[in-house]
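Good morning C.,

I know you're traveling, so I'll keep this short. The sequence:
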Amino acid sequence: MLKYFASKIHRIIGLASGLVVFIVCITGSIYTFKKEISDCMPYTSVKTVNEPKLELSALVASFKAYSNAPIIRIYDYRSPEKSLRIMSSAQGERHLSYLNPYTGEVLKDYKYSSSFWGIILGLHRHLLLPHPIGKNIIGYSIILFALSLLTGLILWFPKKIRMLKQKQFRNFKFSLRGKAQTFRLHSNLGLYLIIPLLISCATGLVWTFPKYEKAVYRLISPDYKKEKNEKQETNLFIGKFQLRSLDKFKKSIDSLNPEEMGLNMFFIPQKTNSPIRVLSCIDDDRFGFTNNYYAHPETGQILNTILDTDKSSAEKLKSLNYDIHTGSLGRIYGKLIVFMLGILGASLPVSGYILFFKKKT
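The C-alpha cells, ready to paste straight into the viewer:
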C-alpha cells in the first residue's frame, strides 16, 4: 500500500515539477563556472604598472563622471591585476561597470539582467518572471523535487532487507535496452544522487523562503536572529555618506585583514544615518570565510567588527551556504562535482517523462 501511494505521488509531482527542475539543474550547472569563464574576459583584468592604485574616492569620482547612477556596491580586489567593479542601479536595473584601478578608465559597462550570466541566474532563481511569482514557482518545484526523490527511494527499496545487497548488484546491467534501460537509469541515478541532490535543494531553498532560512539556522543556534541583530548594532549615525570615508575605511580594513582576504565588498548606504558595510572574503565566489566591518559614513571610522571567528555555528553555516551550493567549497573539484550533479539531476525529469509517455503509448 505504501509503495502504491508513493508511486502515485512520485508520478504526479514529477510531472508537475519536471520542466522547472530541468531548467534549474541545467542553469545551475552552467553558472557553476561563472567565475572561471568571466575571468577570461579582457575587461576583468588590467596590466600592472609601477604605481599604486588610485584611492577609492578617486575611482568613484571617475565613475560618477561617466554615470550618475547610484552606486550600490564596490568590489575592491587586492590583486594588482584585477579591475575594480562597481554595481549601480539605474531606473531599477542593476549595472556592472569595470574600471582600471590605476587610471579610473571605465573598461566595460552593461546591464546585468540582460547579460548572459544575468539571464542564466534569472532563469535559475525566478525563471525570468516577476520575482514573487517566479521565485515561488522555483521554490515549490524544488520542494516537490525533494519529495519525488524521497518517494523514489520508497519505490526502489526492496521488500526485505536481505534482498538489499542482491538488488544493489542487479542495478548494474548494461545489456538492457529501451524502456527497461531508461527505467534502470532513472531509478539508479535517483538513488545514488539522492543525498547530494537533497543538499543542493536545501541550500538553494535558503535564498527562496526567508522563514525556512530562519527555521534552519535556529535549529543550529536557537538565538540566531537575536545574535545577528545584536552583533550588527551600531551607534546612531549623523550625516550623509561622503566619498572620503571610503579611503580611511579601506586602509583600516587592509591593516586588519589577513593576506588570504582577496576581496573587499563595499555596500554603500542608500539611506541617511546608515553605516558603510564591508564584507571581506577570499574571492567573489568563496564566502565561507568572511569578516564584516561597519564604518561611519562620513569619517570612515570603524564602528563595529564581526570576524569570522566570532560567528555562531548558524552564522558560519550561512556563510558557507553559497560555497556548498555552487561547489566552490571544494574549489575546481567541488565545482566539477556540482556541474555533473546538475547535468545528472536534469536527466531525472527527462527520463521520467520518457517513461510516462512510453507507458501511455
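Safe travels,
E.
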